[in-house]
Amino acid sequence: MTTTTASLIRPEYDALVVGARCAGAATAMLLARAGLRVLVVDRDREGSDTISTHALMRGGVLQLARWGLLDRLRATGTPAVRSATFHYGHEALPFAVKPRDGVDALYAPRRTVLDPLLVDAARAAGAQVVHGAALAEVVRGPSGRVEGAVIEGLDGSRARVAASIVIGADGARSRAARLVSAPTERAGRHACGVVYGHWSGLEVEGYHWYYRPGVSAGAIPTGDGRTCVFAALPRPRLLDALPGGADAVYREVLTEAAPELAAALRSARLDARLQPFPGIPGFMRRAWGPGWALVGDAGYFKDPITAHGITDALRDAELLARAVVSGTEAALAGYQTARDAASVELFEVTDRIASFEWDLEEAKGLHKLLARHMASEVELLGTLDETSGGATGPSAALGVAGGIAGR
Ligand SMILES: Cc1cc2nc3c(=O)[nH]c(=O)nc-3n(C[C@H](O)[C@H](O)[C@H](O)COP(=O)(O)OP(=O)(O)OC[C@H]3O[C@@H](n4cnc5c(N)ncnc54)[C@H](O)[C@@H]3O)c2cc1C
């Protein structure tokens, strides 16, 4: 008998998570650890890459440490990042990563490393993970409440799944958000274009972020001796330049933003094609409704110029999982309040940086605001250890079924 995707899926779960990368896999892991019956689906192939550079900030590393996953990440050979240097024109301001809050280094794992690590942890906790399976439709009850979904395999098979909550962790162009008509509650005005590639044979110590009027760049050391080097520019300029090829605009912007880095690339080797990302203005969507919730980029996307999306996804995975486990709509409302309180300042600063309408003095000020935001984020994550986050055992799963779904 042939196994179809649909035949892998059971008829009922406590939680259906759509998207199995940093937001979805982390949320699924936490829900499964709390004893819920969890299905995670992702239309991508397991272990595949996605368009993203991958610098984690302290809050992201702290989450991996708190969840017992940091040693596994280190074991992948992802190097420790112990400094970050901000270059404003000719001025270089180096900062050491101070050992505190349980974090003594930052890491920038490739998504082909981080996402599978989280997927494995979700599976180990008992979640069922099915790749090559996409959310097609949500299923609503008579009151309009979301009560499940239709999942479609790449093989064309379809399964109808009942779930007490459907969680959209399916990225910025979220189908889940569209199907539940999640309103956008805050919109950014600016978007960066980014072109990046992974290089071998480049000696780079720590993160390097470069700023010059109208352009930016960065170097992010990652595993296998490679360094991710990106060039960022206003979206309209990238769109104008792309017909001439990503390579030309990449080298042009790097030469403007980081001439010494551009020169060093001449003796390094590009491992694969350059990846262009034309940019999407940021947004914050409503994060929950009857029978549904959004996490990660699906609910809150900001421009990649501040390299903070993964860190925020790992933060919000826990805020959401705790709310789901608590099993009440008030807890889900609390998730949105906490997400927004922890995000709005970063969202606005990021949008301002993405405008490229700053001079170097203003850029420094914006980065100070960013540093303050990151410190409060780490503080918030620290307080999670002091609170149980509601029930965390299997009985909490019943709380979800009884409380959230009300059935
Ligand atoms: C150019 C660029 C550079 C970036 N650099 C950084 C950085 O340095 N540091 C950082 O922290 N962040 C960075 N980010 C942001 C970061 O990539 C995102 O914040 C992060 O990927 C969000 O994770 P997620 O799990 O919410 O969504 P995603 O990573 O987008 O994953 C969503 C998943 O959902 C799946 N999916 C979509 N639709 C469906 C469907 N209908 N059914 C089933 N599955 C579906 C997709 O296949 C995908 O696997 C960058 C982003 C970009 C674009």
Task: Summarize the model shown.
By secondary structure, the chain is of the alpha+beta class. The protein is built from 13 helices and 19 strands.
Using only C-alpha atoms, the radius of gyration works out to: 21 Å
State which percent range the strand residues make up.
25-35%
- Head-to-tail CA distance between termini: 36 Å
Which percent range fits the helix content?
25-40%
CATH class of the largest domain: Alpha Beta
- Number of distinct helices: 13
> What molecules are bound to this protein?
flavin-adenine dinucleotide
| Unreliable stretches covering 5 or more consecutive residues | 389-407
Mean pLDDT, rounded to whole units?
A: 94
Find the count of extended strands (DSSP E, 2+ residues): 19
Q: Determine the CATH topology of the largest domain.
A: FAD/NAD(P)-binding domain
Say which CATH homologous superfamily of the largest domain is assigned.
FAD/NAD(P)-binding domain
The overall number of domains is 2
The geometry reads as globular
Structure overview:
The protein has 13 helices and 19 strands. It is α+β, with helices and mostly antiparallel strands. The protein has two domains: 300 residues, FAD/NAD(P)-binding domain (3-Layer(bba) Sandwich); 86 residues, D-Amino Acid Oxidase, Chain A, domain 2, CATH 3.30.9.100. Strands 1, 2, 5, 6, 7, 8, 17 and 18 form an eight-stranded mixed beta sheet that branches. Strands 3, 4, 10, 11, 12, 13, 14 and 15 form an eight-stranded mixed beta sheet that branches. The chain has a three-stranded antiparallel beta sheet with strand order 9-16-19, with no helix packed on it. Helix 2 runs parallel beside helix 10 and helix 3 crosses helix 10. The longest helix has 27 residues. The protein starts with a helix and ends with a helix. Bound molecules: flavin-adenine dinucleotide (FAD). Flavin-adenine dinucleotide binds next to helix 2, strand 2, strand 6 and helix 10.
